[in-house]
Design a protein that fits this description.
The complex is a heterodimer of chains A (304) and B (310). Chain A is an all-alpha fold. Chain A has helices at 2-16, 24-31, 34-51, 53-56, 94-130, 132-147, 150-161, 165-174, 177-192, 195-202, 207-243, 255-262, 271-298. The chains are: A mainly alpha (304), B mainly alpha (310).
Chain lengths: 304, 310
């Protein structure tokens, strides 16, 4: 396969006489399959919408207009030309709510992913560094997390402590920490005995310096791959909980709660449920495909 | 030697169960006053006194924990806020429905996923193969509640083929079962495919082929048992996802199981019920994992011998 590509490349370069003429950017883009390009484009679009949501939203997402409830927009054969995607059951502009939801869902998932990555990696390094009972305890917690599904754990914690945005983000941060911990522990254990790690330690570097400045960059590839796989899982966790009415609370809105509210009007205004659902699906799908591709590209030897 | 493997695994299961109970106990205690958390707002002074006595709240923490464990072992989870019924009774009414749905979903995803994976491995790079690989990504990225709602929209609302809510007949089972199953089916197929491909290139398969063993015999008798370990691993690790997913799906299809009870109890903060369901689900997970470990041991003698030695 790769030989083929190489041959093609050589042929192309010889025939067109442009050896060395290609810019770096062109090179990068030629390597990326069209499917992945599409995924990247979609994700980029989502992130831009999330970042500049106020610029995109045509109306205030909270503004109600009870006289104009569940209006059917023109693109779905209705009369409403003001609201591009119609209005919801309280007469709020659906497109604005969708944009706000994209922003909330992505922001929450993003923060959650970062928290998980930092916490999981740090715990893995701590386990690898101290060994002994520290290692045993952390690994016991990892095993424990495997046996208690995140969904159940989240529901328990929400039931006992209630819920708010900040708390919810940290709760999402728990999801999947065990995978990072296990990965980073394994990698730190093998890295510790590498020449460079031994040399730096003998030069008198502190463990913190050793792990953050030297071991982390060496194992970051694998952790980044885990990041791209963890992000979609975060989106799914958040939207599931919000769908059940236990995640993001009104007046704020997320893709999950939007879908949950849209459910009741499926016979007449099906897009109220379908569009948020598709948005979630396309985003997680793009991220998964991108993650798979990055994994295969960065290091062909890593396999799930 | 073999007994040792199973003993070690059982011991680990007990440790996990213990951790689970400690965890829930811990969560309950850091809310402050458990009596206040666990009793409804209209509870009388006598209720409080009785509750504190029953759970030993006036005693030292260690003793409280023992009382807590003792009550659980006796199946005494307290009373529901909502209707004052015994929590144990409420849950045991719902549990069979959930177990039934989960069991059928797992069987469904295995019965469909495994043959798909085998087919993909035998017809590498064909259209079917690509389909299987695509299905795995689809299953992973599709939000299960959205899939469920789409099914309701298509099969219940538009076509009127299947009921969208309830659990009375086996027709009611179909949609939730397929929804839960579909999210995992693809990944089962994908892992089966890679495990089979790995095994099919081994010398003993080539030998079997050279000796003229027929294809079915070769695939099902020689290859599949050797590919079973990674497949069982994937099924084992996905049970947690499925249990978590079934909580959502039970709500989508109004399935009267434990998951739906859990969500409605969390919404009204019916803490005795929530606590009991979390323990029951955790126990179910521990049992499922134990079963998977035992299956390993049975499938592969090397595992039970080396792990037993450690």
């Amino acid at each position: 396969m790769s030989d083929n590509v190489k041959n093609e490349k050589v042929k192309f370069e010889v025939l067109s006489g442009v050896v060395g003429q290609e810019t770096k950017l062109q090179k990068v883009f030629r390597k990326v399959p069209p499917m992945i390009m599409l995924c990247m484009a979609w994700l980029l679009f989502m992130f831009i919408v999330a970042l500049f949501w106020q610029k995109f939203a045509p109306f205030d997402y909270e503004e109600q207009d009870l006289a104009n409830r569940l209006s059917i927009p023109k693109i779905f054969g209705g009369e409403d030309t003001v609201h591009f995607l119609g209005t919801d059951s309280l007469g709020r502009d659906f497109l604005s709510r969708l944009i706000r939801s994209i922003r909330t869902s992505l922001l929450v998932a993003f923060c959650g992913t970062i928290i998980t990555a930092i916490m999981g990696t740090a715990l893995g390094f701590v386990a690898a560094h101290f060994r002994g009972w520290v290692d045993e305890t952390i690994m016991m917690l990892v095993d424990f997390q495997y046996s208690l599904p995140f969904m159940i754990l989240a529901l328990l914690v929400i039931a006992f402590f209630g819920n708010n945005m900040i708390f919810f983000v940290f709760l999402l941060g728990i999801e999947g920490w065990n995978k990072y911990a296990r990965l980073s522990r394994g990698m730190a254990l093998s890295a510790q005995n590498n020449g460079y790690a031994v040399a730096i330690r003998q030069l008198g570097a502190s463990p913190v310096r050793l792990y953050t400045k030297h071991i982390l960059p060496n194992v970051s590839n694998i952790l980044i791959v885990e990041l791209t796989l963890n992000f979609p899982a975060k989106i799914l966790a958040e939207t599931s909980l919000s769908f059940l009415g236990l995640g993001i609370q009104p007046p704020d809105t997320s893709l999950g709660s939007l879908l949950s509210f849209g459910r009741a009007y499926m016979m007449t205004n099906w897009w109220l449920a379908v569009i948020p659902g598709l948005t979630i699906f396309l985003t997680t799908l793009s991220m998964c495909l991108l993650g798979d591709w990055v994994r295969d590209t960065i290091d062909p030897t890593i396999r799930k | 030697m073999h007994v040792k493997y199973f003993l070690v695994k059982t011991l680990r299961a007990f440790i996990t169960t213990f951790l689970l109970v400690v965890f829930v106990f811990f969560v309950l205690r850091i809310t402050g006053d458990p009596a206040q958390a666990m009793l409804p707002d209209d509870a009388t002074e006598e209720d409080y006194i009785e509750f504190r006595q029953m759970w030993g709240l006036d005693k030292p923490l260690m003793e409280q924990f023992f009382v807590y464990c003792k009550n659980f072992i006796h199946g005494d989870f307290g009373q529901s806020y909502k209707d004052g019924r015994d929590v144990f009774e409420v849950i045991s009414q719902r549990l069979p429905k959930s177990v039934w749905l989960m069991g059928m979903s797992i069987i469904f995803s295995i019965v469909v996923g495994l043959p798909l994976g085998i087919y993909a491995a035998l017809h590498r790079n064909s259209f079917g193969d690509r389909f299987v690989m695509g299905a795995a990504v689809f299953g992973f990225s599709m939000p299960n509640f959205f899939l469920g709602i789409m099914f309701i929209l298509i099969f219940s609302m538009k076509l009127h083929w299947l009921p969208s809510a309830g659990s009375d007949t086996w027709l009611h089972l179909l949609l939730p079962m397929i929804t839960i199953g579909m999210t995992r089916m693809g990944s089962y197929a994908r892992y089966t495919r890679s495990a089979m491909l790995n095994v099919l290139s081994k010398p003993y398969i080539i030998t079997a082929k050279a000796k003229g063993a027929n294809r079915n015999r070769m695939v099902y008798l020689h290859a599949l048992p050797n590919a079973a370990i990674p497949i069982v691993t994937v099924i084992g690790t996905s049970i947690g996802h499925m249990v978590g997913g079934s909580v959502v799906i039970e709500n989508v299809f109004a399935w009267p199981g434990v998951g739906r009870l859990l969500v409605s109890s969390v919404a009204v903060r019916d803490l005795p019920v929530v606590q009991a369901i979390v323990i029951v689900m955790g126990l179910a997970m521990v049992l499922a994992n134990l079963l998977v470990d035992f299956t390993y041991g049975l499938l592969d003698p090397r595992i039970r011998v080396t792990a037993g030695d450690k």
